[in-house]
Fold Mitochondrial ribonuclease P catalytic subunit.
Amino acid sequence: MTFCFTGVRSFPKLWKSNSYLGLCPGHSYMSLFPKDCYGIRNQHKWFSLKTASPQNTKATNLPIAKARYRRKGNESCNKQVSPESSHLFAAGAAKKRAQMNPQSKDHALPPVKNIIQLPTKPLNSEEWDKLQEDFKGKANFEDWIISQMAHYNSSVDVAKSLLAWVAAKNNGIVGYNLLVKYLYLCVFHKQTSEVFDIYEIMKARYKSLESGGTSLLIRGLIHSDRWREALLLLKDIKKVMTPSKKNYNDCIQGALLHQDVNTAWNLYQELLCQDLIPMMETLKAFFDFGKGIKDDQYSNKLLDILLYLRNNQLYPGESFAQSIKTWFESVPGEQWKGRFTTIQRSGQCLGCGKTIESIHLSPEEYEYLKGKIMRDVIDGGDQYKKTTPQELKRFKNFVKYCPPFDIVIDGLNVAKMFPKARESQVGSKFQEVRNHVLFIFMSSSAEDSTWIRLLNVVSQLAKQNLQVLVLGRKHMLTPCARWRKDEMEKVQKQASCFFADNISEDDPFLLYATLHSGSHCKFITKDLMRDHKACLPDAKTQRLFFKWQQGHQLAIINRLPGSKITFQHILSYDTVVQTTGDSWHIPYDEDLVERTENVSLLVGANGIP
């Protein structure tokens, strides 16, 4: 969605700020998408903002445009989606990838098979004794029962009766594991007085706490008058390790809850300087706190957050987008208005009529990025751990005497896109390419019939007068079940071939061939080049790399046996937060909804039509 806001007096830094400016020296990019994303059914949601002109009465009472969507899990709904709905770089694609490859959550407790029924009310000593006798598991009873209670968020009173029973049996001593899990329940149920008690016990008994227990104490203290003690615990963590973004989020939330804005912003800057990506709820908290506040300095910091989202290709969730909209519209003396809108395939916003930024780099930007990648990734990266300078030089000379390519294909990734079953001959639908294709092959463990699947892709592209270059490894020249001689010969007849050493890294070759061929050249791979993006020295270059990647990385969206190979349409516009000074367009994730339209939040000036 795009959020569109408009205002009578626009903020000075809307158009003066460097759009590539990072918020902290040395702050790094956001690492994204760890898994296959070609099947993601996700759409660009946009939130657009404009400031309403006093003469424009229509802009004072704007309706929220309803986006067409379907609820997840609705089996009866139409499964057809628009071409952009599964786009590789759709707003929300990062969220989908994170769901497919979830990060470990703080204090997440694995489910344990129930052997006995958990008590629902506090038990006395005799009842606990009886329950222990009925327990037939191999695990320690106390550890098992407290883990079950934590997993199912049992009543604090029930857990407290367990600790009293354990203490009575052990001369008043309760083990650390039991204390921490009891603390978890107290924090979950917001039993602040119990958190205090456990905190005092732990301080008296242990000289230091492990990070899990400290994190729970921080979370339990921030809602109380003793919230500043959470900051001391944060310092304790910093003595031995970098605090988590959740630790910072809890402390920032506590500071804002208790009106200590300076401390909250200082913690935020500290978080960025640690190269941590803030939680969306952290950023949302700043916008929620700023509602109705007339403070230019605070407003400018919130605009910096929006630029941070842009520079790191981050997308707020729906509730965060609502907070952004509410904040803009609440600024005293301003007349910003926001609406949810749709971005057409042409890049035009239906809310304000403006055209979203083009995905294409200018010639100057392209040459700048090409030079940076050649120096910092191709020549200056860590690829020589697997690729020798001699081999890279050999490849450069090889490319030098080939015609420019139009498409570079990561062969191993393409092979893995297809089902394992041997496929029949398939057709191809390919748009917006020119005349040459580089096919990159770097696999030592491909599935049987790999070459048949890849040969289908190469053949269909070659039929369109595309010259294909297949980059492989030398062991592929040795006939075997995976790399059949006759199929290899067919590939070589339709493509120039370069075979690298078996241990070589393929991405530097892919990037070099694509960039060397010119700005028209596209590439196909599931690899999102995170490591190579990390080699780039600054936020500006990383931002340009991602923009170039969006405009040049193709995805195969139909790869079923017997069906046509269809390539995904490349969007003509950039899918990041953007501003023209008198308007903002903010792509975001719609909660619990899979997109079937390209919508956004719009915020802008001079009224929204």
